[in-house]
Amino acid sequence: MSQPAGRRVAAVQRALSVLDELAAAQVDLGTNELARRTGINASSVSRLLATLGEAGVVEHMPETGRYRLGLRLLELGNSVLERLDIRTIARSRLEALVGATGETATLSAPGQAESITIDVAQSTSTVQSVPRLGRPGVGHATATGKIVLAFGLVPLPDGRLERYTERTIVDRAVLGRHVAEVRAQGWAEAVGERELDLNAVAAPILGQRGELVSVLGVQGPASRFDRAAMRAALGPLLAGAAAISKGLGAGPGVAR
């Protein structure tokens, strides 16, 4: 006779508790330790581990008698990640940024030493910046590009740094210090550095291993998106980047 639905659900919940403890542990765990941590009796834990082991989601280590997470979980996780489209995940956050700031929000993919715009939520203001999809954000002169330099673990651009405006950073030593500051504070800004009448702020979107996946940005005309407005935009910008990072599997220590 099959188990009642309630008992089947409870068994799944207990199995998930075991998996959670194995995931949180820094070492392999034995049956008794798992029983202590989960509050499930040892005989039930033993049966759960046997079933989970048959499915490949936990692995038994014969030399110690302990258990660890199995490679089947990695396969399942990769299947989920393959179905994730960063633009779909980020779209609502882009629109929320426009609502919170009144300015244009962008999503960019990291390149070698630049960012590439892959999605835009446009400001509804009459006067607005109009970013183009596919346009590169120069590493040393844009907020999104600086995020790539700071979090993408890429070297500073080779050769001469092009001066776009009087505010563009063209000294490599100054740029190196600036990039270090960006990484330490977790966000970047560009004040008239690529175009004199354009200001922007940006933050990293990180994956489950802390790697740079994308860049979230807000930009607007310098006449309206001034220093005060840029500072006001940081709260929703960082919250949006953290939420997208969490959606990609980044843990709380990774998703700011």
What does this entry look like structurally?
It is a single chain. The protein has helices spanning 5-24, 31-38, 42-55, 71-83, 86-101, 143-151, 172-185, 227-247; strands spanning 58-61, 66-69, 104-110, 114-121, 136-138, 188-191, 198-206, 212-221. The protein is of the alpha+beta class and 256 residues long. It is built from eight helices and eight strands, in the order αααββααβββααβββα. The relative contact order is 0.11. It has a six-stranded antiparallel sheet with strand order 5-4-3-8-7-6, sandwiched between helices. A two-stranded antiparallel sheet has the order 1-2. α2 crosses α3 (42-55). The radius of gyration is 24 Å and the shape is elongated. It has two domains: 5-80, Arc Repressor Mutant, subunit A; 84-247, GAF domain (Beta-Lactamase).
Give a brief description.
This protein has 8 helices and 8 strands; from the N terminus they run αααββααβββααβββα. The protein is elongated, with a radius of gyration of 24 Å.
List keywords for this structure.
single chain, alpha+beta, Arc Repressor Mutant, subunit A, Beta-Lactamase, six-stranded antiparallel sheet, 8 helices
Largest beta sheet: strand ordering: 5-4-3-8-7-6
Mean pLDDT reading: 89
Helix amount: 40-55%
- If helices are DSSP runs of H or I spanning 4 or more residues, what is the number of helices? 8
CATH superfamily of the largest domain: GAF domain
Q: Give the domain tally.
A: 2
Strand content: 15-25%
CATH 2nd-level architecture of the largest domain:
2-Layer Sandwich
Here the CATH topology of the largest domain equals Beta-Lactamase
Please give the alpha-carbon distance between the first and last residues. 49 Å
Q: What is the SS-derived class? A: alpha+beta
Overall geometric form: elongated
> Radius of gyration from the CA trace?
24 Å
Which stretches are low in confidence, meaning pLDDT under 50 for 5 or more residues running?
none
CATH class of the largest domain: Alpha Beta
What's the total count of β strands? 8
